[in-house]
Amino acid sequence: MPELPEVEIAARHLRRWAEGRRIERVTTDPRAARIFRPGSRVAFARALSGARLLRVDRRGKHLLVTLADRRRRPIGLWSHLGMTGKWVLRAWADEEPGHARVRLELDDGHALLYLDPRLFGRQRLVPAADFAALPEVAALGPDPVHDGIDPARLAEGLRATRRPVKVALLDQAILAGVGNIHASESLFAARIDPRCIGRSLSDAQFRTLARAIAASLRRGIESQDGPEIAYVEEPGAENPFRVYARDGERCPRCRREPIRRIVQAQRSTFFCPRCQA
Ligand SMILES: [Zn+2]
Prior knowledge:
alpha+beta; N-terminal domain of MutM-like DNA repair proteins; Helicase, Ruva Protein, domain 3; 2 domains; four-stranded antiparallel β-sheet; 26% helix; 23% strand; binds zinc ion
């Protein structure tokens, strides 16, 4: 599932593959109407054909693509990868991989393809590329890569809620870009029990947690820095994480307890009951 690192790599890919390029032709998958909501596939294709891709930004898990349309007016593409989305590059003539929902043919003989087997992603046009007007973007808290992680602000956000610290870390208004994997990984690194509430943590623990989140995201970006994003949930994928999806395996730090999986707010949490007590 995409978190900040995968989306950061997607932004770098899109810049390298398509910045400055003109989109010659747009095709969309009729079975994927839901990813364009509340817009339509037809309007999406019409607006982007002939557009030139100017820049690609990322905030949290959101890709913000600025283009100039046929009449050189700015138009935005907000791209959210949902649970299984990814952008890949192919030559026009290449056989199309499965689950291609959007195909943007570029003027250099390549095509950008948006693949999404489960259709939880979103591709939406943003008038005048005014991304700040999107509620999904306006609600985002600080971005750990662009803004850094201020431990005092993190403490303020996590102490203001009665939700367990793992659940609150997924709140994009507190910190934009952290998801299920990096929440579990950084709480493990910081030796914090995912079930505790923010008010029970000390300032020192918040400083450790802020460093742990930054390190976990940095490692995630480094490990994804290949030609194509791979998700840990995909068949045959390696698991590069210390506790995520490792329930039942011995803790890599204390080597005494097995890693436990619990469910918090309908999401899996992985932790060591001994190291994170
Ligand atoms: Zn342990």
